[in-house]
Amino acid sequence: MIMDKSPLHEAAGPCYRAVLLVGPPGVGKGTQGKMLAQIPGIFHVSSGDMFRELDRNSKCGQIFQEYAGIGKLVPDDITIKIWQDYMSAKVCEQTYKPKNDLLVLDGIPRNITQAKLMAPFIQVFKVIYMVCEDREVMFKRIRGRSLKEHRIDDAEELVVRYRWDVYKRETEPLIDYYPQERIRIIDANTTAADVLHQILSAIVPIQKQHFEPPVM
Predict the structure, then answer these.
(1) Alpha-carbon gap, residue 121 to 61, rounded angstroms
(2) pLDDT, tens digit, for every residue of 90-116?
(3) Among residues 52, 87, 160, 171, which one has the fewest Cβ atoms lying within 10 Å of its Cβ?
(4) Structural domain contains residue 56
């Protein structure tokens, strides 16, 4: 396997102002991400969308396919390289305007290693930590989603529980990694509108303080 060893970006490169969306499988991050993406002044990036938009003929696209083809996760350094290239492309396209848009990162960083690799390139204002104490509620949501969206893998009980275990082992430690004053706990065991209201109450003040108003 040919690995791209070129550096991510120079430390003097862009530093994106962001909040992180963190929570276990089935907690509703995807639903909230889609709603947030419709709001002017917010640019939502999910790791899944990022990988799906990869050019399969590019070097990073070929590396991703090699790992995905054998059911393995892309190494952290390559994942962050893909993210940097993705963000640069969105800036060039003017889809994302760093002066106007708060970046909402969903699914990336996935673990502490990725958070450290990304640290020179993002200023994390808040970590939006979506919590649902009842694990079975989230498992039920995932199974319902699998039927609605024809995602067969989500219907497998063992797969669902494996993803939960991976989240607990790799992603949840991010909550202790970042300064606790940046953590905003969101009760996700309620209506989607209520969850959105909670999230907006955390991020609207950030928009007002740090960003130029978007062109409506």
Answers:
(1) 22
(2) 999 999 999 999 999 999 999 999 999
(3) 52
(4) yes
Distance of alpha carbon 131 from alpha carbon 28, whole angstroms: 10
Reported as a single tens digit per residue, the pLDDT across 187-201 is 998 999 999 999 999
CATH number, domain containing residue 22 = 3.40.50.300
**3-class SS of residue 21:** strand
The token pair that represents 151 in the structure block: 């995602």
pTM: 0.85
Tokens of 77: 């350094």
Residue 75 lies in a domain: yes
Rounded CA separation 93/205 (Å) = 27
Question: 178 is in which domain, residue-wise?
Answer: 16-208
What pLDDT shows up at residue 157?
64
Contacts of 5 (CB under 8 A, 6+ apart): none
**2 domain residue, yes or no:** no
Residue 207 φ/ψ, nearest 5 degrees: -60, -45
For the chain, the domain total comes to 1
